[in-house]
Amino acid sequence: MDVIILCTGYSFGFPFIKPPGLIPVTEDNQVDLYKLILPPSPSAKGLAVIGLVQPIGSVSPIAEMQARWVTSILAKGLNSLPSETKMREEIAYRRERMRRQYFESAKHTIQILWKEPSFALRLLFGPNVPYIYRLQGPNRWGDAHNAIEGVPYRVKTPLKQRFKNVKKYIRNIFFYFK
Question: Phi, psi (5° rounding) for residue 25?
Fold first, then answer.
């Protein structure tokens, strides 16, 4: 790895990457990246775009997962990348699937298919915990759903009052310091 470029902003483009157009961005903010990370072009070998996602929650945990995946490709060689043709087929398939599942918007897209509406609301309005990214996928954790459901309890428990008789406790503290 030669260079890491960290960027933030409301619109995106890649004018600093040479040659121009290595990562083309359309006017409707569409970018053709394999797994939303890698340009399929052979001339872009070793180039990865981390964090170019529009989730409902935080980008940071997703960017971490993307960075881990890219690291496994670049450093460890655990994953073998498919050919450019296969990457482009996967990009086209994903774009079509997204077109059917979401509505088009200049801003973020909103998923309209939920299997468990109450759990979906917890994911949407609750804290973004790492277990969310273990619900599905290659490193799926069978207990992730339960762990997410238990987050409010685990957050509130340490904040509860620990003493039944606070007045007695305070009186004992003052007695100790006399």
Answer: -120, 125
> Quick one: pLDDT at residue 8?
53
Question: Could you give the number of structural domains in the chain?
Answer: 2
Pick from 109, 139, 160: which residue ends a domain?
109
Same domain, 54 and 102: yes
CA nearest 81: which of 30, 37, 31, 134? 37
Token couple for 53: 């996602």
Given a cut of 50, whether residue 64 has pLDDT beyond it is yes
* pLDDT reported for residue 34: 92
Say if residues 13 and 20 touch (Cβ distance below 8 Å). Answer: no
Q: Average of pLDDT values for 103-127?
A: 64
Shared domain check, 74 and 57 = yes
- The SS3 call for residue 74 is helix
Q: Rounded to two decimals, what is the model's pTM?
A: 0.54
Q: Is 35 left (phi over 0), alpha (psi -120 to 50) or beta?
A: left
Q: Which domain holds residue 9?
A: 1-109
Please tell me the chain's helix, strand, coil percentages from 3-state DSSP, rounded to the nearest 5. Answer: 45, 5, 55
Q: pLDDT digits over 5-54, tens only?
A: 666 555 667 778 888 778 877 776 778 899 999 998 888 888 888 988 87
